[in-house]
Amino acid sequence: MQTSIGVRKLVEFILKKGNLISSVNSQNTALDGINIHQQLQKKFSKDTKAEFSLKKELLIDGESWILHGRADGLKCIDDIPSQIVEIKTSSLEFEELSANTLELYWAQAKIYAHIIMEKEGLSELSLKLIYVQTTTNVTTEKIQIISKNKAKDFFNEVIESFTNWIKLQHQLKKERDLSINNLNFPFSSYRQNQYEFATAVYKTIALNKKLLVEAPTGTGKTISTIFPAIKALSTSKCQKIFYLTAKQSTRQVAEETLQLLVDHGLSISTITLTSKEQITFAEEIDIPDDENPYYLGYYDRLRPALMDILTNEKIITRQVIETYAKKHLLDPFEFSLDVSNFCDLIICDYNYLFDPLVKLQRFFTEKNYGYTFLIDEAHNLIDRSRAMYTKEISSEEVKNLLDKLHSLPQPPQEVVDKLNTLLNAFDLIKEPLLNYQQQDVIIEEKLSSITKKLMYFCDFVTEWLKENPEFSLKDELLELFFTAYTFVKVSDYYTESFRTHLLITKNSELLIRVFCLDSSSLIANSLNLGGSAILFSATLSPLNYYQEMFGLIDDSLLYQLTSPFNESNLNLLITSYIPVTYQQRQHSLTNIITAIYTMITAKTGNYLVFLPSYTFLKQVVVAFNQAYPHVDTIIQETNMTRMQQEEFLKQFVSNPSKVLLGFAVLGGSFAEGIDLKGDRLNGVAIVSVGLPMLNSETNELKEYFDNKQKNGFQYAYQLPGLNNIFQAAGRVIRSSTDIGVVLLIDSRFSTARYTQFFPPHWKYAHVVHNKLELQNNLFKFWDNKNTGS
Q1: What is the DSSP string of 708-720?
Q2: Is the pLDDT of residue 578 over 50?
């Protein structure tokens, strides 16, 4: 892998000055820019070459670099270069561009000029800047003449400044690689299968492959992926590691694992990225850019701050970023992104790679074989990615803003007119639904008409707010803007795997929802931006299903580990005599609560019961409390805060003197990610096979896969439900000394339709056929464990 940098990235890092600006940009700016470039290039004379690639090999502090770029145009006279053409676009008027912005524009052209003049032996070149304001198409042209010596001097100044940063990187890399070569596995020995797991990860990185791993609880997934990936860093198998997670808890585990390695001698720069909403300083909120002290002069203070943090810190957490951001008066979110450029390992949410709206453009605009992706709790990625490509907007939102505008003494007529235009577009779609008395319709077509109207609305708001920055309803207008913006952005990805859901609300308004049925190709496209990827979880059964849902059928390796724990410590029971289909739940209610009571009376301890919905949960709780009022019960409530969740879990104490029974929802916050080790959790009962709720969108998903000659019911209902089951069951055995019970209450679990998908460590499941058999099995299990047999 060659070390390379683009000309634009180089000049922006070395020469960017002044304020940080987070202005609301037109959602269509990038596309407009591409279109404008292409239109202008089509008009080039025959002697001007479009998209002229340039590159120059450099030796920087003993390291070979490739500086590359692409001039928008190169004019030649008799095949001899005479003029470089650089095209730039934005929504600002040319006169509004800052001096530094123009400096950066010209800097690119000057570096292109140096590369060409050095290669061709020319004494001077003409530089032509064509600037187009995207909202008006007003074009401005400027020309400079630069001599060979001036271009060379400019180039050398930029490279000299860049060299100082490369020297810092080389110093840090030298320390890093030396520490990696001397780094041993931080534990006295590997757990069962752990060495093989780590070896598979290392080989996957070395071969630039994709690997899916199901590694049951206790395997040590975090260290088994991070340790070999870091070992690969010192051999240039990879240049940067991205540890992507779905939850805060797994980010903390990754940080703790890295700290453990640092304590064992590792010298590495890592950073945890925190969302802008969470990390922005309180004093920055609702302050205009031109009054925000953390924005003003940001780029003037950035480079000293980078030098400071990189030379003094290794594990850069949110708290570390905030400390240095305060010290150097920098916006903490933007500072964290700039620091990440220099880090060996970045811990961040899935969004930063997979979400088209927040993807890290600085890393993920083109493929880099040096990137390794470690994707934790990968089973979450299917639903998360679908949600990233699902957005909605309603006429009610437009109407509410119109009502607020009309309440003003002098509502701005331009804004009112634009909103009325949007409402008319909604009405055109809503009218046939009302005529045919259709409240809920899903169609395959993308609604291009409304999408265009929303795009024009976004462009209008962008320009109008520039001229009216003090508008009293600015926040409300921006809220609608961002809703429209995200809807349009996601609509750009519309393919045959998307649908449009039209819904008439209770208020007779129209809600339009674009939703993604199959995000496999989108996931694969994101994964292919790197060289290697390891997707791992305790629950990836069946592996071939996840392989397909990640778009990796033809491009991945599969690895399924057995549990490292003694299988006899888990008593997995299936009640074949209790049907829990939706139609039979009420009839089976007595048997359900009796089975739960049988479980908790076999041994005094802490237990959790998971149910498929809050509605059913409340029915079971009421029935259980009426039948067994002496048992202490606690219930997961809807929309619990983090503090309330922690209080819930605190009640599961070690060495309990009486039974505690918690009721929670499958797929909720207590069914995944909680770690109640030892006798803080003695057993789990799972009621039903966890099928997702029946609704028109999930049925559309079923039909979509049916049409692809797949088993639509499996893809839409059964397998997503089973993953929730596996996750909930995984709460019980968390360490080698844990002992516990998993009680599956639903006769469907005993059928081949479900047992075929059980992971290897579930092969010893016992089917019980009545209450007495259940009772005998439970008492025998605990008696054996108490006597040590």
Answers
A1: TTS-HHIIIIIHH
A2: yes
Give the pLDDT score at 25.
Answer: 45
Average pLDDT over residues 410-419: 95
Query: How far is it, in rounded angstroms, from Cα 287 to Cα 301?
Result: 20
CA atoms 120, 122, 124, 126: torsion sign: negative
Pairing of strands 660-665, 683-687: unpaired
E-strand ranges in 162-300 read 210-214, 240-245, 270-272
Tell me how far the alpha carbon of residue 488 is from its chain's centroid. Answer: 20
Question: Predicted confidence band at 28 (pLDDT cuts at 50, 70, 90)?
Answer: very low
Beta bridge partners of 61: none
CA within 13 Å, CB half, 377:
21
Q: Residue 731 to residues 219, 411, 683, 726, 734: CA-CA distances in angstroms?
A: 14, 57, 9, 9, 7
What is the three-class DSSP state of 49?
strand
| Helix boundaries (H) for 329-394 | 332-340, 351-354, 381-388
685 CB-near residues (< 8 Å, 6+ apart): 595, 596, 599, 607, 608, 609, 610, 742, 743, 745
Distance CA 237, CA 230 (A): 10
pLDDT tens for 166-215 read: 999 899 999 999 999 999 999 999 988 899 999 999 999 999 999 999 99
Q: Return the biggest CA–CA distance within the chain.
A: 97
> Is the alpha carbon torsion for 733, 738, 743, 748 positive or negative?
positive
> How, if at all, do strands 498-504 and 440-443 pair?
antiparallel
Sequence-ordered alpha helix ranges (H) in 148-206: 148-181, 194-206
Q: Across residues 726-736, what is the average pLDDT?
A: 92
662-692 confidence digits (pLDDT tens):
999 999 999 987 889 889 999 999 999 999 9
DSSP SS3 for 53 = strand
- Measured CA to CA in angstroms, residue 342 lies from 269, 311, 362 at distances of 8, 11, 12
What does R_g of the chain's alpha carbons equal in angstroms? 30
Instruction: Pick the closest to residue 376 from 355, 353, 350, 358 (CA basis).
Output: 350
- What is the helix, strand, coil percentage profile of the chain, to 5? 50, 20, 30
Tell me if 180 sits within 8 A of 234, measured CB to CB: yes
CB 386 within 8 A of CB 515: yes
- Is the pLDDT at 27 greater than 80? The verdict is no
User: What are the strands of the beta sheet with 632-635, ordered from one edge?
Assistant: 632-635, 660-665, 606-611, 683-687, 740-745, 570-575, 766-768
Phi/psi of residue 123, each to 5°? Answer: -95, -25
pLDDT grade for 412, boundaries at 50, 70 and 90: very high
Q: What angle do CA 460, 463, 466 make, to 5 degrees?
A: 140
Tokens representing residue 573 in the block: 């029971």
542: helix, coil or strand? coil
What is the separation of C-alpha 658 from the centre of its chain, rounded to a whole number of angstroms?
Answer: 42
Rounded to whole angstroms, the Cα distance separating 427 from 185 reads: 64
